[in-house]
UniProtKB/TrEMBL annotation:
SUPFAM superfamilies: (Trans)glycosidases, Carbohydrate-binding domain
Keywords for the protein's UniProt record, in alphabetical order: Signal
PANTHER family per the UniProt record, alphabetical: ALPHA-L-ARABINOFURANOSIDASE C, ALPHA-L-ARABINOFURANOSIDASE C-RELATED
UniProt-listed GO biological process terms: polysaccharide catabolic process
Lineage, highest ranks first: Bacteria, Bacillati, Actinomycetota, Actinomycetes, Catenulisporales
Pfam family, one: CBM_2
GO MF annotations in UniProt: hydrolase activity, hydrolyzing O-glycosyl compounds; polysaccharide binding
Keyword Signal: yes
Protein name per Swiss-Prot or TrEMBL: Cellulose binding domain-containing protein
Location of the CBM2 domain: 483-592
Extent of the signal sequence: 1-34
Keyword Signal: yes
């Protein structure tokens, strides 16, 4: 069943607060007496796919009263978020982007949260926007105008565009929570979005468009709305009609759990969910099937939202989706607000019923959340994932001899990262680790989140071949390879988000492979005919062909292993302005 809750057209309110996201110190294993040692086997030769550039995603909303708080940008960058979805769940189908307004009685659009306001956040964090256009009360022409403004007028280079939000919830199958003024039914949706695709891609053929599907084995999957002229279920109808034109499909995953143990087992359902969806794509999308991506643009724990198990659920769920070929997963959401009731959790935390990563500082039933922008545990689940599975990393196989501990591994340019999640509520779990296809030289850095610490923090003294995991914890080991060459100062990934006659927009991510550096300086070279006219997430100056970029007030330190996202816009004479041929961090050239 779909989750029908206050997240639909919600308003987050409260007082802004500055967020501290870093912590240090040595973390000891916590919990009761250890059980038998669990064997973790890493097979670095078993390739499971590449982490996409939009893997670690997050929902943002036009109704969010804290979206522009000073703590938001460092919180998003600190979690390694790669993608930001906008304008916010069901609100999207009542939202008119040009006026930054919603249909009367259906939600709220904060005057400070218009599209350009959102894009400033996306640019400063380096996250890729995922835009949900208004299908429910909008038109194909309105959606095409949005693409034109974003990618032609403003040169934002937005790639991903969703065609509505949870449209099967418009009453087609009885239950209604989604606003839709058009006739109901899968056939109508399939026919209408064909026009959306045509008009939107006529403006910018390079964009990717995605259609809403139902989630396998979850209502209303498999139902046929014959009263609206449908002759088949939603997914097959949409894929038969539009599969040849689609770039991705959209699924939302809100599992139903009755206990913490039930919640922590939900990741086991993901492989069949994805394989069934992929089979439908292969069956109905014809020769285009191999090009159609799967994106999970909404998920959260849907049970004990503000608990430590919610953080473990986030780590397990994101990695299991990625290992099964999904390109993007987006948490619901940045700020959400408290539910109608609260309760005390066994470990002493308060469950506010708030699906946000960060507190809104709101109150309900006389119980008030902590100050706005205080991270809930789920934030640290995404933060762990963001530092572990970086874009371009190669996912490799792992096995665990006991389901109490789940394991994941990725190969990077500098070695191998291993993530271990302990599902045991009261028991510390000793693990032994063996490797095939990789010879670890040692642990270069480690982080751990647990029920004892309730935040992600560095850990010292861990061994690559065995350790004891605290109860309810996430542990990340970053390992260097034996005999490997010394790490370069930095690695860089860069590419144009959009280009035009005489210029382009460049998105850059520089990873610091050395020790933490403060008051950093990045330099890069441009061709003689080009100059930087605008930048974000740094300040810039240019002397001849060399551009010097330095820290802004909120981003003065790049942690060891940390990544700095930034971007700039160039202008110059000639049709093709070349990209930089090199980048350097503190005077040392980056690889990549």
């Amino acid at each position: 069943m779909p989750r029908i809750s206050r997240r639909r057209f919600a308003v987050a309110a409260g007082v802004p607060a500055v967020l501290a996201l870093t912590a240090g110190g040595f973390l000891l294993a916590q919990g009761a007496k250890a059980s038998s040692t669990i064997a973790i086997d890493v097979n670095a030769a078993q390739h499971l796919g590449t982490v996409s550039s939009v893997a670690n995603g997050l929902n943002t909303a036009t109704f969010d009263g804290h979206l522009n708080d000073s703590a938001v940008i460092p919180a998003i960058t600190g979690a390694g978020v790669d993608a930001l979805r906008y304008p916010g769940g069901s609100t999207a189908d009542a939202y008119h982007w040009k006026t930054n307004t919603t249909v009367d009685g259906l939600g709220y659009a904060n005057p400070s949260n218009g599209f350009d306001d959102f894009m400033r956040i996306a640019q400063k964090t380096g996250a890729s926007p995922i835009i949900t256009v208004n299908y429910g009360s909008g038109t194909a022409a309105e959606a095409a105008a949005w693409v034109k403004y974003a990618n032609v007028t403003k040169h934002y280079g937005i790639k991903y565009w969703e065609l509505g939000n949870e449209i099967p919830g418009d009453g087609t199958y009885g239950t209604q929570w989604e606003h839709n003024t058009k006739p109901k039914g899968a056939t109508t949706y399939a026919n209408n979005i064909a026009d959306y695709i045509t008009q939107m891609k006529a403006v910018d053929p390079s964009i990717k468009v995605g259609a809403v599907l139902t989630t396998y084995n979850s209502w209303p999957d498999g139902l046929i709305a014959t009263q609206y002229g449908d002759t088949a279920d939603w997914n097959s109808t949409v894929l038969k009609r539009d599969g040849s034109k689609l770039d991705f499909v959209i699924i939302h995953y809100y599992p139903t759990s009755k206990s913490e143990a039930d919640l922590l087992g939900q990741y086991k359902n993901i492989a069949s969910l994805v394989s069934h969806t992929r089979a439908e794509i292969n069956q109905y999308a014809g020769s285009n099937a191999a090009n159609v991506q799967i994106m999970i643009t909404e998920t959260d724990s849907s049970y004990e939202y503000d608990s430590v198990p919610a953080a473990l659920y986030a780590a397990d769920t994101y990695m299991t989706f990625l290992e099964n070929g999904v390109d993007n997963i987006d948490w619901w959401d940045l700020h959400n607000g408290p539910g109608s009731t609260s309760s005390r959790l066994p470990d002493g935390l308060t469950e506010y019923g708030d699906g946000g990563l960060l507190s809104s500082g709101g109150c309900s039933g006389g119980v008030c959340e902590p100050a706005a922008n205080t991270p809930f545990p789920a934030y640290y689940g995404l933060q762990a994932l963001g530092g572990f599975a970086t874009p371009g990393a190669q996912m490799v196989g792992t096995t665990s001899s006991n389901s109490a501990v789940t394991s994941y591994a990725v190969k990077t340019a500098t070695g191998l990262n291993l993530m271990l999640v302990n599902h045991s509520a009261q028991t510390s779990e000793p693990v032994s680790i063996s490797y095939a296809g990789f010879n670890p030289a040692g642990v270069t850095s480690a982080e751990q989140f647990s029920d004892a610490s309730k935040k992600l923090q560095p850990v010292n003294g861990l061994n690559a071949n065995g350790l004891t995991l605290p109860a309810y914890s996430i542990t990340i080991l970053k390992l260097s390879a034996s005999g490997a060459a010394p790490n370069p100062s930095c690695t860089v990934t860069a590419g144009p988000a959009a280009s035009w006659y005489g210029g382009y927009t460049e998105n850059v991510r520089i990873t610091n492979n050395g020790p933490a550096t403060s008051n950093w300086k990045i330099t890069f070279g441009l061709p003689a005919n080009a100059h930087v006219v605008n930048s974000w997430n740094l300040t810039h100056s240019q002397d001849g062909t060399t551009v010097t970029a330095q820290a802004v007030s909120y981003d003065k330190t790049i942690a060891a292993g940390g990544t700095l996202p930034f971007g700039f816009v160039t202008a110059g004479s000639g049709k093709n302005v070349a990209q930089p041929t090199w980048y350097a961090l503190n005077g040392v050239r980056c690889s990549g």
